[in-house]
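step: validate -> pass
step: tokenize input -> pass
step: predict -> running
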Amino acid sequence: MPVGINQPSNQIRLTNVSLVRLKKGREPTITIAVDRTPDTTIAGKKRFEIACYKNKVLEWRSGVETDLDNVLQIPSVFLSVGKGQTAPSQDLAKAFGSKIAVNAIILEILNKGELQVGEKERHAQLERVHNEVVDIVAGKLVDPKSKRVYTTGMIEKALDQLSSQGTHKHEDAKGGGTATPIDGQDNGEPKGKGKEMPTWSGVVTTRSAKSQALDAMKALIAWQPIPVSRARMRLRITCPTSILKQATKAPPRSKADDGDGDGMEEKAKGTVKDRILSFIEQVESQDVVGEEWEVTGFVEPGAFKGLGEFIGGETKGRGRVEVLDMAVIHEGD
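step: predict -> pass
step: emit ->
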């Protein structure tokens, strides 16, 4: 009598895939029975996996790829792709709900799950994000004196210095030491509740390059391993001439702003035109065209939001702020 081959019907063998994993379900509960060890498997979270084509997951999450068929190798949910074990419908119902379709479960895993990649792919992805962050930072920061852009190599060295500085600072904190403050950092500030300086510890693949570049710029500006400042924005502001000479009052100052000095409050008072010009660091040109006053100039990025809110509020929507250039820099010789 021939021996039968035991081949489970729920096993699907797949190779050369990228896995996306997601743990889902109720938190595990511990039950202890008489003469038994604690059992943590009851009502615990299960790990679900989907099999995708390499590099397609990132394209899907970034919006480059919109066809789900081009992302999935097979439209099924697995308990283990390596073993070819598909997830029973009972497990899916317990974890995601009985009324959720399989396609909706696949989309949740694809969008929220953790992407499993090999060591070479992980290194290549990390290097790609690192280069993108350095390029963004190099295009947004300049030397405050010469207004010239730094090379990507100089930005990279400065970030490496901040990263190693953050490591030493963490070690000092563990050893009970204190880090040396930079640029007027107050030793007398209370620990924990005080204003913390931005830090930089390197790039990760779980966040976008733009958000990490913003963190890197904040850390570079705060610690100044090299002299840096944000590149100025070039704007065109248009305002009706009929309201330029109207008086305006300074906005109420919060307690946090009391230490900034009285000069800013005096500068903020005056006419609408005076207030607009107070936001502009350098006026390039100004002219009256018909019934509108138009000024072009350079503004620090941090003042852009306040300028836009002031124009919108004082002109009742009749004024405009146009961005001509997000970052004005001077190329090196």
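step: describe -> The CA atoms of residues 114 and 313 lie 45 Å apart.
step: cleanup -> pass
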